Amino acid sequence: MEGGVRSNTWKPALPVCQAGEAKDCFLVLRGTGMRPSESMSMRWEFMRFDTGIYANPHGKTKSAKRTVPLLNSSLLVLRRRHMEQGFPVSGWIFPAESKTGHIATITKVFKKAREAAQLPASMCIYTARHGALTDLGRIVPTAALMEIGGHTDPRVAMGHQHPQTANLQALLDATAATERVQ
Questions:
Q1: What are phi and psi of 102, to 5 degrees?
Q2: Rg of the Cα atoms in the chain
Q3: Beta strand 66-69 pairing with 53-56
Q4: What are the tens digits of pLDDT across the range 80-137?
Q5: Contact predicate 104/96, CB 8 Å
Q6: Neighbours of 171 (CB within 10 A)
Q7: Whole-number Å distance between alpha carbons of 110 and 11
Q8: Which residues contact 67 (CB under 8 A, 6 or more apart)?
């Protein structure tokens, strides 16, 4: 996907993104593959620091209620925010003065950082989710990707998987050398 937030293509935007809610939310979004609305409405009572997961209580689909692994820098960001907020046991992780009580969008801040970093306009905030799930799609089976992403339709999860066909024999040989075939 051209302009997507995969691997390291998004990193040039981070130094020019203002520190604060939007940057933290983006790092959590990119580190979890959650939907933007899910990450912005995260609550402390569903955090499981001991296991490194977030127990997402609801969302867009019936599969949105799930445990979400906190990967990359997302767990560090959440631990820091937890400390900065005084170690709350409940409440919004990204509080804001709004109708909902939490941030509702980070689009303007992300757009400004994207433009300052001269990244393509096709790179929108939702592509952070796609990039995280695409990275995971390289190492987990479709069923696991569906669970992590909160997908109900395997076709959606398969959109995050882009199989690499180069060097298949070398990969098979490496697998055979480390695993016992039964």
A1: -135, 165
A2: 18
A3: antiparallel
A4: 999 999 999 999 999 988 899 898 888 888 888 878 878 888 888 888 888 888 888 8
A5: yes
A6: 12
A7: 12
A8: 48, 53, 54, 55, 56
pTM for the predicted model, two decimal places: 0.75
CATH code given to domain 11-178? 1.10.443.10
Alpha helices in 7-163 (DSSP H): 21-32, 36-40, 74-84, 107-116, 127-137, 142-149, 154-158
Q: At what angle do helices 142-149 and 127-137 cross, to 10 degrees?
A: 150
73 to 13, 30, 45: CA distances (angstroms): 15, 9, 20
* Number of neighbouring beta carbons within 10 Å of residue 50: 6
pLDDT for position 126: 81
Phi, psi of 18 (to 5 degrees): -60, 140
3-state secondary structure of 102: strand
CB half-sphere exposure, 21, CA atoms < 13 A: 19
Domain positions in the chain are 11-178
Whether 146 contacts 157, CB under 8 Å: yes
